[in-house]
Specification:
The protein is an alpha/beta fold. The protein folds into two domains: 164 residues, Dimethylsulfoxide Reductase, domain 2, CATH 3.40.228.10; 81 residues, Barwin-like endoglucanases (Beta Barrel), CATH 2.40.40. It contains nine helices and eleven strands. A six-stranded mixed barrel has the order 6-10-7-9-8-11. Strands 3-2-1-4-5 form a five-stranded parallel sheet, with helices on both faces. Strand 1, helix 2 and strand 2 form a beta-alpha-beta unit. Helix 3 packs parallel to helix 7. The radius of gyration is 19 Å and the shape is globular. 38% of the residues are buried.
Length: 268
């Protein structure tokens, strides 16, 4: 069964690490599944997707960088029978700390589990956000354990990452790392077919950064300083802005997709 057939057949879908930007076919497939079969859809991401929100059974907003902790909370909620070693790892999790640092409440995962209990075909969609996460090695182990010890069908949106998960034979989990802070002005990189370096922001982001629509600004990240134009999107909520790129050697466009940046007006 291919990815499209898996999603369409599902009566419970949980997505993590993708906001479905430039994934119209996949997004429409989820919506069609919801409309036809009343599929339960749990969307987990740091950025509120206003297009998908009306179709969500549940939206879990977590802090950028906390995907490892989110997977640990999924592990705790959905894995019911496993090895003694993995069960000890689950029992030793500091759920209060992980929940507080990720800004995702334990009760939200309990609710997700309750929403899934009557389903016959569960799917977990894993997006590209996790591929370049600093803790990707442990994330791969967590995903492989979830695949093996839950009844989720894993749909991984990147084929290379899917192969990495499938070939993992190491279940020796590491302790969940302390979460790095992403306070201040944060940008999220998405990939488009053609490069577009406008910075798409919400009204609230613009207010925090003291910028206005069509302002030209520099984004400063380590050795990177790039010029971009502010575009305020009324449909975007929250305090994370979006920047689009295809290919670039600039430091800001490489590795993990979230970057904490300093914004400087061009005419300042």
């Amino acid at each position: 069964m291919n990815k499209k057939e898996t999603i369409f057949k599902s009566d419970f879908i949980l997505s993590l690490g993708t906001m479905f930007f430039n994934k119209e076919e996949l997004k429409n497939l989820i919506i069609e599944s919801i409309e036809k079969t009343d599929t339960k859809f749990v969307y987990m991401h740091p950025i509120d997707n206003i297009v998908l929100k009306p179709f969500c059974t549940q939206f879990v907003k977590y802090e950028a960088g906390s995907e490892e902790g989110i997977l640990a909370l999924i592990l705790k909620s959905f894995v019911k029978e496993t090895t003694d070693k993995i069960q000890k790892f689950i029992n030793d999790l500091d759920l209060g700390y992980i929940s507080a640092e990720s800004s995702a409440g334990e009760e939200e995962f309990e609710e997700a589990y309750e929403n899934s209990k009557k389903s016959q075909f569960k799917t977990l969609i894993i997006g590209e956000d996790l591929i370049e996460h600093p803790r990707v090695k442990n994330i791969v182990k967590l995903l492989n354990i979830i695949k093996k010890y839950t009844d989720f069908n894993l749909v991984v949106l990147d084929s290379d990452f899917e192969e990495r998960i499938n070939s993992c034979e190491d279940f020796d989990l590491e302790e969940i790392a302390e979460l790095k802070s992403f306070d201040g002005t944060v940008v999220y990189r998405v990939i488009e077919d053609k490069q577009n370096k406008n910075l798409i922001t919400s009204k609230s982001f613009a207010q925090i950064a003291k910028i206005e629509n069509n302002d030209e600004v520099f984004l400063n990240y380590k050795s990177t300083k790039i010029k971009t134009t502010i575009k305020i999107d009324e449909k975007l909520h929250g305090t994370i802005a979006i920047i689009n790129t295809r290919d670039s050697n600039e430091e800001i466009f490489n590795n993990y997709r979230y970057k904490q940046v300093k914004i400087e007006k061009v005419d300042a």
